[in-house]
Amino acid sequence: MKISLNWLQDFVTFTEKNPQEIARRITASTAEVDEVEVQGALLDGCVVGEITSLGKHPDADRLSVCDVKTDRGTAKVVCGGTNLHQGMKVAFAHVGTTVRGHEGETVTLQKVKIRGQDSEGMICAAEEIGLESLYPPKPDEGNRPVVDLSALSAVAGTLLREALGLNDVILHIDNHAITHRADLFSHIGFARECVAIGLADWKEPSKKKRVTFGKQPLPFAIRNEVPTLMPRYCSCLVQIKSLGTTPDWMKRRLEAVGWRSVSLPVDITNYVATELGMPLHSFDADDFVGDITIRTSKKDETILTLDHVERPLPEGAIVLNDQQGVFDLLGIMGGLRSSTKETTKHIYLHSAIVDPVTIRRTIVATGHRTDASTVYEKGIPRIRAKEGFMRALALMLELIPGAKIISSMEEAGDEGASPTIDLELARVTSVLGQEIPAETIKKNLTDLGCAVKGGKGKMLAVTPPPYRPDLKSPIDLIEEIGRIFGYDNIASQMPDASTVPPARDTRVNVLRDNLKEEGYWEVLPLSLTSATLLQHAGFDPQDAITVQNAISDETSLLQTSTLPSLLEHAQRNRLQAADVIRTFTVGHVFSKSIPEHAELSMMHCTLADEQSGSDRLKHEPLLLLKRDLHTALEAIGYVVHEQQTTTSPGFAHPGRAATLMVGQTPIGLLCEVHPDIRERFELPGRAAVVIIDLAALLALPPSSRLMRPLPQFPSVQYDVTTTKTKRDAVGSMVTKLRGSDPLLESVEVVDLYTGKPLTDDQYNLTLRFTYRAPDRTLTETEAQAVHAKLTQQLG
Prior knowledge:
alpha+beta, elongated
């Protein structure tokens, strides 16, 4: 956003003259000034010159020798411009002037000889003196044409800055910090700030010309079907002879702050929007067909907007409609059909306050943001509607040829009322940590436009101005007091409380780090979701909590599980991954049936069709995910085991699901994704998932890790292969073997085999038995005796 200091001086007289200091003070108290743009910064030493003679250079075909009339007499110049002609007014830079070179570097001009001819100064192209925005090159003018100033009335020798009216300073404001301050999206808003922070004093307001309305009602009816979404509306009909021409002073101001001059009626509405922060719109009333209805858009409606784009309308956008359909997307952009044009004779001017939430939803739904919608979504104060409307009418009556108001004013709604806030002076001191005198507080609030009255004891009754709807509570007023007083004026003070950081539970962080080491990518989605995604993932949207101020359907519910976001992520990235997707996420889940809690979801998804062959079982996503989960949980002190479950949720394969247990406490679910769910998310191979209730897990005390010395005696190992079916419970069998003899150190699964001559239901399981005696070298005979006894249990 750009603010013109010259424009501000319509309202105030600056007591601080240095633009850099003005920018610093505004940055410290109101909004960050990204840049201080001094117009015509490269125009020192530049004047309007007039070419009195023009001839070819005797020794260079592409150069010309010119006599240029300036404020210092006639200067001889060698120039390579392609668009020169005798009598032409040009931008001339005297010797000693600093200009831009061809590579953007700065060059100080000197008197030189070019191919034997003296050259005293330079006839400048727009890029060389920073005027490219005002004088963009034309396609037929060749490379780097000089600036043609022939249209100016200024005589030769006039300072170029004066001739072009470039005597302004523009502040480039970063508006991210003032999104709650709709009043600051205007020059009058920043004028108030400059007065409040002591940079300026108010000028005596000029007398406003009275605007007289006609007695006849509008020739068409205005029906507002959504008064809650549009609480304030003003309009009337203006008759004109022609559009007229935008005066130079208005063009210069609009261009200085980033507007492009379009036509006088449109320029007037843009001018008022920038001056007062009230976007307006002017229509060609002769294009209306029948009465006008203000309503919300319906499904499958479209509008051809001013930028010649046919836009589909989302349901619920505020629109204007006549018998031919929608002709205005209110608060966003007008329609092409009803726009003012050269043939316009009747202008319908309206000023509307609309619901900012509806505007924001429309911006998101259409993907289209305009200058008007950026201001509207901040919540324009109601008082702005009539102020902007009357200001625009006054300018139209003054500037547009034959302009005359031929209707009465159509007006609906009121300007609202500001609440009175009780402010305790002691609380101001408590919050800010600085005692500010009561008179200073009163002055600060009064300078901001508040009405301040002394209450009982040390209380103030403060009524904010109608243009500050953001001031709603005592803490808002305290923030304003601190801001205007100056945060740098508040004495620094060390905190009285202990600065020792509290004890931290790092178990979740360690768990995340271990999963990453296992090759899993962490996904960080929003905790907001949609009913469609929940249904696709096999969850019931009816159990989800609805977001009251959702900006779109995709973010209208709080997630009931972190799993749907992993499935959606896999669907989006299945074409980019090589052969497998391994992801996890940690987030809070919300539900009507269970309390909010943290949840971990993991996914191991293969991106190929089901494998066949002898090693197929070793690559089962369910087994690999189970292994990685055990490793990660052991790192934070939890030994987990699986327990067969008889019931499984809709997203789980009914025959491939197990409850995860730590001791006797269930903490989550390990399962394979149901084939129907896989198909919905277009996953070609098998996918296994884990869902863990972190609140339940972390409520359990972790096991202490015991250290033991390295063994001093060698071990004896035997591998045993046995044939099993998919119905056999291997886990319980291995657990039973591990505690069956003191000499058995460990039993581990080392291989799984499927293939011939086994049936489809069979597989070979290879176990490795490790035997060791703690006090001696174990003999082969001792080990074989124990091993023979244990292998009988394998069946």
